[in-house]
Design goal:
Blueprint: H1 4-12, H2 17-24, H3 28-38, H4 42-45, H5 51-64, H6 70-79, H7 86-96, H8 98-108, E1 118-119, E2 124-125, E3 136-137, H9 150-155, H10 166-180
Antiparallel strand pairs: 1-2, 2-3
Helix pairs in contact: 2-3, 5-7, 6-7, 8-10
Protein name: Photosystem I P700 chlorophyll a apoprotein A2
């Protein structure tokens, strides 16, 4: 018989009932039954932390590790002995660092990427679909949380402006999208 303290230790390490069952060569239902018999609930193993305290901790971690995404943040919290649901960590990061979340999303989204020659210094597309016209600023395609309204699209800066405004166009676009999607 599998001792309850072994099951609880594995749950604290982040293993699921299925993972534990696989390690010990038993059915997942057996692990769940032992958990019920021993009164072990996953919810009881989580750290009780209100949203404000979680936000403070996430802010502290982001000061030392500004490029941390959700999974890294969960790891940093676990290293501090804080066990929190992934969804709560995601919500906290959206509250504390919405711009960083948006930028990481834009950097990591692998959908429909085209390969073009891009001037590394300025991020200018010289050979893209509009290369027959003047070079222009390219804002990568991303999947937003929702569709933008026509009024919101009109607020976005013109990407076909002069090349000297490349950085301003990028910063304005990210800032406006962050504001619109909050």
């Amino acid at each position: 018989m599998l001792p309850p303290n072994v099951i609880e230790a594995h749950l604290r390490w982040g293993h699921t009932a299925g993972d534990i069952a696989q390690v010990f060569g038993v059915c997942e239902r057996t692990i769940r039954r032992r958990m019920t018999q021993s009164g072990i609930r996953v919810q009881d193993l989580l750290t009780l932390l209100d949203d404000n305290s979680l936000d403070e901790t996430v802010t502290q971690i982001l000061q030392h590790h500004p490029n941390s995404g959700y999974k890294m943040m969960v790891g940093h919290l676990n290293a501090r002995g804080i066990r929190i649901q992934r969804q709560r960590v995601q919500e906290s990061m959206r509250r504390v660092d919405p711009g960083g979340v948006l930028i990481r999303t834009m950097q990591l989204n692998p959908r429909r990427r085209r390969k073009y020659f891009v001037d590394i210094e300025f991020g200018v597309d010289w050979t893209g679909p509009c290369a027959h016209r003047q070079p222009h600023v390219v804002v990568p395609e991303v999947q937003l949380q929702r569709s933008l309204t026509d009024q919101e699209v009109e607020r976005l800066p013109d990407p076909d402006g002069p090349l000297s405004n490349v950085w301003n166009v990028y910063v304005q676009t990210v800032g406006l999208l962050t504001e619109m999607l909050q």
